[in-house]
Amino acid sequence: MITPDFDTVNVGGIRTACVGRKELAALVGNICEGYAQRHQAAPFVIFSNNGHAISIYNADKQAREQMDQADLVHADGQSVVSFSRWFKHARAVPERTATTDMIHDIPNFYPGTLKHFLLGGKAASVSKAADILGQTYANFQVVGHQHGYFGDAEEAAICDAINAAKPDVLWVGLGKPKEQLFCIRNKSRLTVPVIISCGGCYNYITGEYPRAPMWMQNAGLEWLFRMAKDPRKLFVRYLLTNPHAIYCVLKHGLAKQG
């Protein structure tokens, strides 16, 4: 098993990697290279941390146990970067590594060609995202994709199909906490070097979900932009999870300081 060297910081109870975008992309590529060389058995699982994740982690025991089994948790939200600097930690997260950027960062910052399998989302969305990524990056080879509307009884067959395609990276976009549960539950079935949870990433690639202006992203306000675009779906979620996440960050941070 490859054990990359990176520092972590406690953000809302979640051990979050202190890595930047280029470093994370290189780490993924190096793990994929090392997998072939060492015949590594277990996939390296990467989950994301943001306000929603912090709230779920502190409210749901099962989700917390799944998150704790990740090999690396990165700062998907700008708020996590800010939270990591609230207390006198020896380390802090250097920059946001949004999953919607990471799927582009890997082919941009890692020169080698990697094979990818996209799992999750609607059939039309994941198929279109696969076409866009494959056409945009010569070193992003899509070897398969599968929509996310399947039942538990179908998981074994889906895992077999993923293994048969032999991807280097499996992207799992089923939404929190379902995607974390899928990754950990099927980790022993999958013979892929890296698994990355990616939420609604495919919809951003296709343009179905617009990204916030850069100033809002840098200010940690992308959640506000998303809520304004889809208030019926996201207003209650952010109304509940954002204050809870801040409370959890303070609780864990102050406990550590004490």
TrEMBL record:
Regions crossing the membrane: none
UniProt KW keywords: Glycosyltransferase, Transferase
InterPro entries: WecG_TagA_CpsF
Keyword set includes rRNA-binding: no
GO molecular-function terms, A-Z: hexosyltransferase activity
Family annotation (CDD domains): Glyco_transf_WecG_TagA (cd06533)
Pfam (any one): Glyco_tran_WecG
NCBIfam families: wecG_tagA_cpsF
PANTHER family (alphabetical): PTHR34136, UDP-N-ACETYL-D-MANNOSAMINURONIC ACID TRANSFERASE
Identification of the protein by name: Glycosyl transferase
